[in-house]
């Protein structure tokens, strides 16, 4: 199957589109990690942007249960909340220099996030109350996080070479990966009830069941540097940051990859858009629509 891929410029190359999500207003919302902005884009119109503090490093963005967009500010060590009308609130985190990265809505009506350098995962209520839970190791580099179907939040531990789970009571379980130096980054809930993740260091896609059983699927190009992953139309789609491609893997492990039109476009985040198509953020300044 050959995918139809079209690119849409949303900023100059200095902006650095990193992650994206569908908002409750029918638009795509994008973090511009280098430009210190959050962009809003509706296909067929010009993107608009909301300014943040320079150097704040917005990374991952997710819709909240309150119809606002929530995002991590990795270098400002805070969580941001942005309404579709453009009202911005920022919540500094209690742990200094904690480097928040991943964020996702949980089953408890709050947002859960990871701290890359703080050795914690955290919870923030929609009114801004923060609770942090220490990890059972140091230097694990907690990265992406997602809600599982078991009422837990699952996250990658990039430097600990593991997948973690935190329950709503703050109890944390860690599952070591079979492959050394796999470097897990992106993670999502799959259509089969398991969690699927990418191993940027090993060039593999991983699957973990809620009881901790792990399966790994090597990619055709082990040097592709897979970065983010999302469920879409019954399969898992992922970005290959080092190979300028997007790929898909079905629950049986069959992989298909698709080249992006512009060389060196650096695909990062990937998500289903409000139009039902798949979109990926290209750090060089555009979004790619995969239809």
TrEMBL record:
Entry keyword annotation includes Lipoprotein: no
Superkingdom to which the source organism belongs = Bacteria
* Entries under InterPro entries matching the protein: Vgb, Vgb_bact, WD40/YVTN_repeat-like_dom_sf
Q: Which GO terms describe its biological process?
A: antibiotic catabolic process; response to antibiotic
- Matching SUPFAM superfamilies: Calcium-dependent phosphotriesterase
Task: Quote the record's binding site residues for substrate.
Answer: 227
Q: Which keywords fit this entry according to its UniProt record? A: Antibiotic resistance, Hydrolase, Lyase, Magnesium, Metal-binding
* UniProt protein name: Virginiamycin B lyase
Provenance organism: Stackebrandtia nassauensis (strain DSM 44728 / CIP 108903 / NRRL B-16338 / NBRC 102104 / LLR-40K-21)
Q: Which gene encodes it?
A: vgb
